[in-house]
Write a sequence for this structure.
């Protein structure tokens, strides 16, 4: 503060010792100006937390000096749960309180604009004039000439500009309703200041760019990974205070005689809210031993060459809101930014297209991205969590998303221009859990703006100018050229009349040709995936008509477990995502078969059939398939009844429930085992013995009608349930275990029931409500 008074207010503020927010000694002091004070506070930190947790928020300033400009860059960053101070232990997130019910929401917004403008104009003019001069023969000797010259001018001009701007906007608001927990954690805020001395454009051009190159070499502006000393403030108490007012003091730390880099740190407490469901129903993603969170890989790498499993998420899944991006992992994005910046500037050699190769340094790319450039500031936002998360659907396209160009002026003949292209390939998707009480509100809308500006001008002028010319002095020498004894005075009179008229008009028409609102309240599957991010920075040297290539640097990074998605049930089936514990449906769980070698795959019709069975008190339905060995099929795996119970049912409260297997041959006995022996125990009976609960299942095939009714019937080739022909009725059976006084299963009781599941449950005393209206009817008969 003592050595940087220009950063503070010009006036003094008196602070008393009784001020509870005071973090300085009482007395007069100069504080930060309002523009910085309004930004450096906890409220702004909450709104900009995605930027602060990533590459950081940029503050810049420029000071003019003789022949040079001093540019100051401050990067503000936040680290969650930082390394503990010496002598202390890491506390992590500490539980504060539980809230029985609340809505936890997150909001994301994207607005992309594209404009096209044309201008045309014309001008016409007519200029006429004449001049007449005469010298009368009988005039006196001193009067020798008379002239007159009328003139007429007419001019007209017209110009017209038409501009069309298309703006595409998407807004997603995710709500999670239900119990939630509040936590507090320590965060560390850091402010890194970099001072750079840049030659003025005139000075640099006059010496053919030598001052700029010499300044970069002396200041090491391309070195983006220097050692930076730090200062640290500790947490004062539980109450979160504003950021220290002596932020400007970090300017005083001088490291290098030319360029200054310093980092100032202080610690605060943040409070977060987390839905309880996201913690109770969560399978942590796995990470290979020794794998890093961010790894630079050859830019020719593909998921197949890296040994990863492709995740076929496309832009269509995101634009139709069948899936949405919850976030990119902040610390991984920050690490990727730091590594990519070092590769662009030439601090490190970026990897080539093949393992073991490196790329040749591009001086044009390095000049654009080194310290002291506005392009480096732009990269902090272009490679940021909000950009990657909200524009992911554009980055999933082949070729990725090309961002706006950045320019660094000052070359002797050309300026350096460049642009960054980001392409993202998700892979290695892992299912986490379901958000059962969540919904997504999405709005897609497009603005189209037409602007037209026209102008017309007309001018008319007319004039005349008579004049006389005389001779005086020694007239005898009038015929001698340039004789100073003879003078030729002249007189003239001019008169003109002018008229002009200019008209201009401006019109704007703005409409909204598209506005689509969606609200989807379904069990959203939470998915975590790796991201293969390709960053391509291409530079060129251009000015006016001069254009020649500058260079290109391509870098690719493998970010493990960096992407979090929410995926709707239909899209999860299409993407081949099967949660090992099943998908929640109103009546219980739907466990789809996908990729099994013996059992047919389930699709959206099977999902709608599972959703068509309403929830009934006391009944828990399992919409699952069994294979020929009476094992349960989940995804592409067959699970024995014991494995099925440990993987699925052990995580469900089944107290007082009756299980219903909505599948064909659930009570099939005597099926051939894999070894060729006979299995006398059906899947339903084995499950009844393990859970000690009644199980309702069918011995033969099960079909679900278009209205969602599960029927135990067998169809022939002409079978039609609607016409009541060509099918044979089967039956549902209750398999109830008999327990002794110690709770041990000593036998199994069987009760035959109706072929219609709803009527069969009614016999057991269960009331099944009508089919939900919001479930679409099935297109065809579904065989379970």
């Amino acid at each position: 503060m003592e050595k940087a008074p220009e950063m503070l207010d010009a006036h003094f503020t008196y602070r008393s010792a009784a001020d509870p927010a005071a973090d300085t000694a009482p007395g007069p002091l100069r504080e930060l100006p309002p523009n910085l004070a309004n930004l450096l506070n906890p409220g702004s930190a909450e709104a900009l937390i995605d930027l602060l947790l990533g590459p950081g928020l940029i503050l810049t300033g420029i000071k003019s000096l003789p022949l040079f400009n001093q540019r100051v860059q401050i990067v503000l960053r936040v680290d969650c749960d930082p390394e503990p101070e010496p002598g202390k232990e890491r506390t992590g997130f500490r539980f504060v309180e539980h809230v029985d019910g609340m809505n936890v929401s997150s909001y994301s917004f994207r607005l992309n604009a594209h404009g096209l403008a044309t201008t045309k104009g014309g001008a016409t003019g007519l200029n006429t004039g004449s001049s007449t001069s005469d010298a009368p023969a009988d005039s006196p000797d001193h009067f020798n000439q008379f002239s007159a010259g009328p003139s007429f001018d007419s001019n007209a001009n017209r110009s017209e500009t038409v501009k069309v701007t298309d703006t595409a906007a998407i807004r997603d608001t995710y709500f999670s309703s239900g119990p939630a927990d509040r936590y507090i954690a320590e965060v560390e805020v850091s402010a890194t200041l970099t001072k750079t001395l840049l030659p003025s454009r005139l000075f640099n051009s006059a010496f053919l760019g030598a001052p700029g190159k010499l300044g970069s070499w002396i200041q090491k502006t391309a070195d983006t990974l220097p050692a930076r000393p730090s200062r640290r403030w500790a947490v004062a108490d539980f109450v979160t205070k504003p950021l220290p007012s002596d932020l400007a003091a970090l300017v005083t730390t001088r490291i290098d005689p030319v360029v200054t880099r310093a980092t100032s740190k202080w610690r605060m407490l943040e409070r977060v809210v987390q839905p309880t469901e996201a913690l109770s129903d969560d399978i942590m993603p796995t990470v290979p031993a020794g794998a890093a969170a961010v790894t630079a890989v050859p830019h020719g790498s593909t998921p197949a060459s890296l040994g990863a499993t492709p995740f076929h998420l496309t832009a269509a899944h995101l634009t139709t809101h069948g899936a949405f991006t919850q976030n990119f992992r902040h610390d991984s994005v920050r690490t990727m930014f730091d590594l990519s910046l070092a590769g662009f500037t030439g601090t490190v050699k970026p990897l080539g297209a093949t393992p073991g190769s490196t790329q040749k340094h591009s001086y044009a790319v390095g000049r654009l991205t080194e310290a002291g450039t506005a392009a480096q500031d732009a990269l902090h936002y272009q490679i940021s969590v909000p950009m990657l998360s909200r524009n992911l659907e554009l980055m999933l396209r082949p070729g990725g998303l090309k961002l706006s160009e950045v320019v660094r002026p000052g070359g002797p003949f050309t300026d350096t221009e460049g642009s960054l292209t980001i392409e993202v390939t998700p892979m290695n998707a892992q299912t986490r859990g379901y958000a059962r009480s969540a919904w997504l509100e999405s709005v897609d809308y497009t603005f189209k703006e037409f602007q037209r500006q026209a102008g017309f001008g007309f001018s008319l002028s007319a004039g005349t100018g008579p004049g006389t010319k005389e001779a005086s002095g020694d007239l005898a020498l009038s015929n001698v050229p340039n004789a100073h004894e003879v003078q030729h005075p002249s007189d003239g009179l001019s008169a003109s009349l002018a008229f002009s008229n200019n008209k201009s008009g401006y019109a704007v028409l703005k409409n909204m040709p598209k506005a689509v609102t969606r609200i989807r309240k379904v069990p959203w599957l939470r998915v975590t995936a790796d991201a293969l991010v390709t960053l391509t920075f291409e530079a060129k040297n251009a000015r006016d008509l001069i254009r020649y290539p500058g260079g290109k640097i391509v870098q690719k990074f493998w970010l493990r477990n960096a992407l979090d998605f929410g995926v709707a049930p239909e899209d999860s089936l299409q993407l081949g995502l099967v949660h090992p514990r099943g998908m929640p449906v109103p009546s219980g769980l739907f466990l789809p078969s996908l990729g099994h070698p013996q059992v047919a795959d389930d699709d959206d019709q099977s999902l709608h059939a599972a959703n068509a069975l309403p929830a009934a008190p006391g009944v828990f339905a399992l919409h699952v398939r069994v294979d020929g060995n009476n094992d349960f099929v989940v995804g592409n795996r067959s699970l024995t009844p014991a494995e099925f119970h440990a993987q699925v049912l052990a995580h469900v409260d089944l107290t007082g429930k009756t299980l219903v297997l909505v599948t064909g041959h659930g009570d099939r006995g005597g099926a051939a085992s894999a070894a060729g022996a006979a299995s006398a125990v059906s899947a339903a009976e084995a499950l009844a013995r393990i859970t000690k609960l009644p199980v309702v299942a069918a011995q033969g095939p099960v079909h679900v009608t278009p209205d969602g009714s599960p029927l135990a019937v067998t169809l022939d080739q002409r079978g039609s349930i609607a016409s009541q022909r060509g099918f044979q009725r089967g039956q549902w059976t209750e398999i109830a275990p008999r327990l002794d006084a110690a709770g041990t299963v000593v036998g199994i009781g069987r009760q035959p029931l109706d072929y219609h599941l709803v009527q069969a449950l009614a016999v057991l005393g269960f009331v099944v409500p009508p089919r939900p209206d919001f479930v679409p009817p099935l297109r065809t008969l579904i065989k379970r």
Notes: The mean pLDDT is 82.
